[in-house]
Amino acid sequence: MKILVAGDRHVLSRLMVQALKKELGDSLDVTTIDFDWPMEPHVDVAEVREAAGGEEEIVAAGRGAEVIVTQLAPITRKVLNSLQDLKLVVVTRGGPVNVNVEAATENGVIIANAPGRNAPAAAEYALGLMLAAMKRIPDAHASLKGGEWRGEFYAYEENGIELDGSTVGLVGFGAIGSRVAKVLAAFGAEVLVHDPFVEDGPVVKAGGRKAGLDELLERSKVVSLHARLSDETRGMIGAEQIGKMPEGSVLVNTARGGLLDYDALCDALESGQLGAAALDVYEEEPPPEGSRLFAAPNLVLSPHIAGATRETAHRAADIAAAEVGRYARGEKMENVVNGEAVG
């Protein structure tokens, strides 16, 4: 079985090869290529998004390959039509947006992903941003680094807030949101969860309680977004929803930029309706020059790096290799995106 491993500067090709050898043995027929992402941004290639490399590069490197393992290679209709021996593509990310899944299905190519690969990293990061916004840590850091000792942070009107005893609302309770809930409960917070796709049991086990979106917004001192982006959830938090939150509350988004109306967010920060906010994701990445986000008060920003840990890279490689192993042994695969392609 010939395998093409297309790595990048995060999920390294050597990590994927090591995981594959551990799963299948040392005698593998593996070709590797490496992209320069994230040093170079991912781009749209033909009909797929967030890809690195070109179609011709993948066709040339993948000729004769039965399996491709990659995070970012553009698996377009052209690539799929050109690689006649290809049977399986494992994408080392949750959403295979760099793959034309419809064309893969038409060509009988199985597409698998790596769900949960960054859940621990993203959950920890969401909590970090939450605390940074609540405690004004970036402001304190920047002022002290600039040589200013700002004792006025102890003034009542400048004080931060605590998780202990506060109500925190989580919109979404998947692999990331459920981890955040457990830690918040350990901090002593009352955790409300809005997720129509989750039963009460797992939420209660994590220390929370299910609630409707309106109740969650109206009662929560802190709201953190963890929902998937879909037609139903796009723009789900706008001016109306933010207006239902208690004055001075905190809003955190580490999920997807499309969930939140960023103009409404800036309006709320400027008016004081929101006391603080923290973002790792944006509708447009990077935000354009002159974006209101750069001038909004009490806003913590980071460049979509919640999943950027070494453990995430190793986990992604291991999940992908395990799926290739199941395929090679004729076992039932666990992370198939297009089940209709499975013979």
Automatic annotation (TrEMBL):
Q: Which Gene3D superfamilies match?
A: NAD(P)-binding Rossmann-like Domain
Q: State the UniProt keywords alphabetically.
A: NAD, Oxidoreductase
Pfam families with a match to the protein in the record: 2-Hacid_dh, 2-Hacid_dh_C
Limits of the D-isomer specific 2-hydroxyacid dehydrogenase NAD-binding domain: 127-306
D-isomer specific 2-hydroxyacid dehydrogenase catalytic domain span: 50-338
PROSITE patterns, sorted: D_2_HYDROXYACID_DH_3 (PS00671)
What GO molecular functions are on record for this protein? Answer: NAD binding; oxidoreductase activity, acting on the CH-OH group of donors, NAD or NADP as acceptor
Q: Which InterPro entries match?
A: D-2-hydroxyacid_DH, D-isomer_2_OHA_DH_cat_dom, D-isomer_DH_CS, D-isomer_DH_NAD-bd, NAD(P)-bd_dom_sf
What's the family?
A: Belongs to the D-isomer specific 2-hydroxyacid dehydrogenase family.
Q: By what name is this protein known?
A: Hydroxyacid dehydrogenase
Native organism is Rubrobacter tropicus
